Amino acid sequence: MASGGVYAETLELPKVPDTIVSGSTFIKWDDDSGLAQACTLKIDPCGYVLFWKFEEKAETDLLDVIQISDVRNGKYARMPKDSKVKDLIKSKLASPENLEDHCITVLYGPNFVETNAINFVALDVKDAKLWFDCLMSFCQHVLPANASPLNFLEKHYTKLMVQANPDEAIPVKLITKYLASNKDDKKKVYDTLQSLGLPSKKEDAIKISDFTLDTFLLFMSRICNRQDIDKIFTEIGAKKKPYLTVAQFVEFLNKYQRDPRLNEILFPYYDTERAMSFINTYEPNKQFAEKGHLSVQGFTRYLMSEHNTVINNDRLALHQDMNAPLSHYFINSSHNTYLTGHQLTGKSSVEIYRQALMSGCRCVELDCWDGKSEDQEPCITHGLTWCTEVSFKDVVEAIAESAFKTSDYPVILSFENHCSRLQQRKMAQYCVSIFGDMLLDKPIDDFPIDDGKPLPSPKALMRKIIIKNKKKLPKAANPESSASQEGPVANGTEATSPDVTDGDTPQIEVATDELSESVKSEGGESLKDILDKNKEKKEVDQPEEEVESENVLSDLVNYIQPVHFKSFEYAETRDKSYEMTSFVETGATTLLKQEPVEFVNYNKRQLSRIYPKGTRVGSENYMPQVFWNAGCQLVALNFQTLDVPMMLNLGKFEYNGKCGYIRKPDFMCRTDRSFDPFAESTVDGIIAGSVEVKVISGQFLSERKVGTYVEVDMYGLPADTVRRKYRTKTVTNNGLNPVYDEEPFRFNKVVLPNLAVLRIAVYEESGKLIGHRVLPVDSIQPGYRHIKLKSDCNQALCLPVLFVSIVTADYVPSGFSDFADALTNPIAFQSKAEIRGHMLESLMDDDEASSQVPEMQPKLAPVLPANIRRSSAQFQAQGGRCVKPSMSVGNLGNGTQCSSNRSVSLTADHIDGTENSSRRFKRSQSTKKREEDPKIVPVPIHELRDHKNVEKVKEKHKKDMSLLVRKHMKEKDRLQKQHFTTQEKLAKDMDKEIETTKKKLDKTLKRASKSGKYEEVYKEGVQEVASLRKDHEMRMNVLKLEQREEVIALIEKQLKEQHALAKESVQPEFDELRVVMELTKTKQSKKLAEVHER
Prior knowledge:
Elements: H1 18-22, E1 24-30, E2 35-43, E3 49-54, E4 61-64, E5 68-73, H2 83-91, H3 99-102, E6 103-108, E7 116-122, H4 125-139, H5 142-145, H6 149-162, E8 169-171, H7 172-179, H8 183-195, E9 205-207, H9 213-223, H10 227-238, E10 243-245, H11 246-257, H12 272-282, H13 286-290, E11 293-295, H14 296-303, H15 313-316, E12 329-334, H16 351-358, E13 363-369, E14 379-380, E15 390-391, H17 392-402, E16 411-417, H18 421-435, E17 465-468, H19 479-485, H20 505-515, H21 527-541, H22 551-554, E18 561-562, H23 568-574, E19 579-584, H24 585-594, H25 596-605, E20 608-611, H26 625-628, E21 634-637, H27 644-652, E22 661-663, E23 689-699, E24 708-715, E25 722-727, E26 745-750, E27 757-764, E28 769-776, E29 783-790, E30 796-810, H28 817-824, H29 826-841, H30 846-852, H31 857-860, H32 866-877, H33 908-911, H34 917-921, H35 925-932, H36 941-945, H37 948-1011, H38 1014-1093
């Protein structure tokens, strides 16, 4: 437990029990096929994959553990519907009467709507419970989904291992399937396997003993030729050596990988000991490691490791203070949770409630209507539309089972209540009976519902379900409060205004005008006609008293009481933190434009909920960042639509332990601070930042041969938001290892880093999303980083990764960089100031030096003539003002008359402080006139340099330099491609040489088997092949060294050319600067002449 009530959770991966690693016997059943087969179910020791194998089949089926969205056991697990399947399963169980306790259902899918289920039945109840607990501990853990690229490569290797055939060999076609789908890339896979001396034909299989993890990593590095890392490796010190020394590695870590803003005491610099620990961990060559050397392979592994992730694991853990009032948190919220598609014609689902809660959602919506069945059961649907309905009771049961699987923090049920009093009683009964102790049916003793009292904290409400519904208050008890609560329930739980309401009906009526012609029912009626009929029927069938709020349900409402919004001033005078309002996005946007500061202040005290406007009938989402900027807590989105707003929401709430609550910035919570979400200048107390992102390359982005590009956007305050501006070039026909390597994308000023996020997305050239990542700006680690990509549903993709270079810094306004450097390194700045001071002494008279360099005054004071010192002292004793003598001091070191031609004398006016005082300070008329004239001062050099003529010369030079750099980049690319081609050609030649040697050896072995010398010849042949491979490796290393020298020579040549061009540009700039200076001098001379004439 850290200070300030912050809970610092330690993230550790759960361990897989030995029983599960060795495997258990299960029955896997499927209703569609009608099969129930015995299988052995296992999880690998690292917890990467769940896999099972049937006795009759040679193939192994598997499922990536991080793709599992939910696991169910007992009464919540699925049961066979087919009686034959059920009877078959029961016949194999020792205790068939409690079948549900044996069942486990594993759910997975690409989004919240399309879910698939795998059903298993354990032979023993204890096994079922053990497996359920193990799978739940992994599938909802934040570490596996945010592991390093190196861990994901190990996972991919594990997938291959568990799918080995009965001969313990991995088919080559299985390796190829994951990496390539086109002919050229498949050939590349085969050639790479051949270069490693492994079987490489399509029908071949590689023995597990020959395909170790190190061999696999070497294979993957050759598939993606990492010339980008080779270039960095050379630039940071390797040059002609095949390794970095530990000193060079330490320098690299401190210069590039460490955030310069970190405190040196709390976050010390990297030292030799830490660098050696990395070398010992990631260097595959043990001889190098012993000497403190790091090869390019070890360097690559470090860059892809858990010690070099773009976000620290402590940000993924629960690390924020959870003891503040509810209003101080952003809360993961869903709108019309029951819908799986369109707002007017979509299907309703119980399952999506489970999926939303499992993803970390903490506020779900239930639109409650009277059921039409004979038993009068309340249902959930989008009223007055063609949407299907689901049972209210089924939804409550689903919420009870899934509410606290992912997070223990409170769940809010947002009721939009359209039910009659009778069915409201049933709703209350189900909530009480099904939720049990989880339901918060009365206030907590420590947090009474009183005016001026804050809301309870998420920690105080852990594992509690809170109902948000209309609160029925006695009118006589509080007329003012009662007035604010009035309004028929049928129009929503809060207000009847279409701009500020919790119900969507008014907005949907607007939308149906646009859709009435295009959307028709089966009978030919338009949707608008059906809506009108339903409204008329409702008015006839339901008397007024049946739509009033029922007391039993109202009694369950406590800390979240919806009210009609009047104004921010009115809410402030009431000071009731338990009152909240739902705003349609359009109404909230209007309020945000008109009263931004007041909106933020409102959200400091009480909750506000934002939901999409009714015209978003396709379930599109609005941008949630707009309302997060105002401190709105419940920004409700359509979870069934995975657009950019929803991706941002999933990415934001992935952090802080995926608990569904993110603490708002401090100044958005404190009443003594004011915040304007439209601020463009630095927020008081917050240091603005700057971020620079250079997209270098991608690896394994797609198994298809497609073009790809990368977009980098920032979302935050309006001043910080940058969208659709930064995009790399499209690299065509290369989904395996595209190289972008363009100029960095710069976000020069981020006003509020702790509210901003960076989104990096990779697309195919057609615009289809490959993967993306959302990163909090204040948590990004600078340096060379590999970024694991995620799907639109925020599921981690196994192989796709981006390699980037990130620079983070505090924002420094232009013109203050020297001052910032002085603050960063005051010792160096002070030493520079002293050197400049000593240099100036040689150009200044002694008295000027004494006035300009204060530290030298004590040394000059004793050498003044005694009469001057006495006169000065007498003058001060008489109460007069000390007047600085206007004189030049030549050499006063001997205490005598100075050698200057100008005499040193003080008149009586200087000494006598009482006589002629008016005359002494009286200014002449000419002096006054001179002061009234405009002052003519020398123009500073930096202003001359900013002159438009000088700027033109600079721009021309900059353009020429840019063209030269582009030319050099093309030269470098051509050389690298040439090198790669040469390496491939050499590898093929060497492979042919080995194949030829093997063929000769086969013939020799045939002859030797006849003469009985098979074993001797075989050993000699193996040694010959091994020696040949060693020789090939040396030849390849020599070639790489030669190529590295060529690259170095090219870079040196290019640098010389750039230096020469820069040198050539100095004289034209100097000449232009002289011209500008002469022009300025002429203008000032004219002005001076005019002054003298006057």
